[in-house]
Amino acid sequence: MENIEWKIGPKNMGNQLHSICSYMAMYPPIIPNHFIKKFSKSNDVILDPFCGRGTTLLEACLLKRKKIIGNDKNPLAVVLSRSKVSVPQKGRIISRINKLENNYKPEEIEIEDVDEKIKMLYNDYTLKQLIYLKKKLNWKTSNVDNFITAMILGIMHGRTRGYLSISMPNTFSMSPNYVKKYIKEHSLEKPKRNVFRLLKEKLDRCYQVCKKRGKVYMQDTRNMTRIKDSTIDLIVTSPPYTRLITYGSFNWIRLWFIDKEGKEVDKELFRTESLNRYCNFMLDVLFEFKRVLKPGGKAILVIGDVKKRKSNETINLAENIWKRCAEPLGFTKIGKIQKDYIGNPNDRNPKVSRIWGEKKGKATNVERFLIIEN
What is the pLDDT of residues 271-289, one digit of tens each? Predict the structure, then answer.
């Protein structure tokens, strides 16, 4: 291990807003916190063009950088990230939940037409409340409703009484057929949970004040038209890892709540098992980075090693991105590509997503940090 500076710090960096909702392949807040402190000043503009659940954005807000911008093509990521950079007053959130609860009339909610894949997860009592909130929350236009939506997404499924579904992991969802089979084999019962009560409990667990605001856009990172030329001082991001993660399909339950289909989201997101196609994608991404970064602006890319599915050969994506994408575009590399281990270095595959004891994917326990300057 060449550097462990970004490992020294408390979980969630002392701010519970990070815990609104889990997200696949999320990195710990200490990583963006470390690099934002090291490579930016208070009057700088920070961008995360693959913002995911908004970890980098929240750390930039907490460090009070001048302007914070996020971007992601996944609508789930946009909801979660906006909840971090547009945090409403807690009193407004409580008032909105109370109003929704007071106006809720279960006898008026129909669930007959709800997808069977969703019905198998929730008690009818809980499902009616979810359907009601799904219709009433204006997450696209209201910061308060977006925050409540993000909290609901965070409790949609999990193992404990703080979640709404049958017992299952909260990080991601396996295929509906797999879930259906598991429910049958283990005779799982759908728990009767009150969404309004669990929302208030969730609010007490995850809310902290953050007055600094930011913007989140939903655009292709290769063409961020909302961001002007030479306006960004620092980019901190983690690009997608070839075809390892299908963010739509792995989040089909949460996406249902915001009226999106997992498979349709996956069609919009870039995925490939071809290293050549991946490097071509990253070449376009870095070309856009070069446009939006100021002269001397820097980009920190957090990139994990992956293994080929057939040969099991390990691919150093960070080195490939440097040699085949960043260097040809005229970027300067700052120092060596730094290497870090996720979890225990002796654990051969700790980043692999797990559900009910099963392993999926071809991630490794190696993460690399590529730092480049415009």
Answer: 666 888 889 999 999 999 9
pLDDT tens per residue across span 47-84: 999 999 999 999 999 999 999 999 999 999 999 999 99
Helical H runs in 104-194?
Answer: 116-119, 124-136, 143-155, 176-185
Measure the CA–CA gap between 57 and 65, rounded to whole angstroms.
10
* DSSP calls for 202-225: HHHHH--------EEE---TT--T
Q: What is the pTM of this model?
A: 0.91
Query: At a CB cut-off of 8 Å and minimum separation 6, what does 136 contact?
Result: 100
Select from 206, 240, 274 the last residue of a domain. Answer: 206
What DSSP element (H or E) covers 69?
strand 67-71
Q: DSSP of 72-86, one letter per residue?
A: -S-HHHHHHHHHHHS
Do 112 and 245 fall within a single domain? no
Q: Kind of pairing, strands 338-341 and 363-373?
A: antiparallel
Please state, in angstroms and rounded to a whole number, the distance separating the CA atoms of residues 191 and 201: 17
- Domain of 304 in residue numbering reads as 5-84+211-373
Pairing relation of β-strands 232-237 and 293-307? parallel
Work out how many domains the chain is built from and give that number. 2
